[in-house]
Amino acid sequence: MAKTPGSKPNAAFMKPLTPSAELAAVVGSEPLARSEVVSKMWEYIKKNNLQNPANKREIISDDKLQPIFGKPKVTMFEMNKLLAGHLK
């Protein structure tokens, strides 16, 4: 989506949120904007090779991701929805 001149970034996405203890184990305990949380999650997923090689849209839970996702694997679209429950 192209930005129109004078448009402002969505303040809701820029507001720093505090991660839950489970999420802090992956992204750290400092308050972060939603976009930063998602970026750090992808860093962790790629660093630990947690994408399903047969379907790159699937993320396989390891010991740190299992408490966040609550199931063995999720799609990248589900991940964003599940992260919202771990941010205040």
TrEMBL record:
It comes from Terrihabitans soli. InterPro entries: SWIB_domain, SWIB_MDM2_dom_sf, SWIB_MDM2_domain. SUPFAM superfamilies: SWIB/MDM2 domain. It comes from the Bacteria. This is DM2 domain-containing protein. Residues 12-88 form the DM2 domain. The lineage of its organism: Bacteria, Pseudomonadati, Pseudomonadota, Alphaproteobacteria, Hyphomicrobiales.
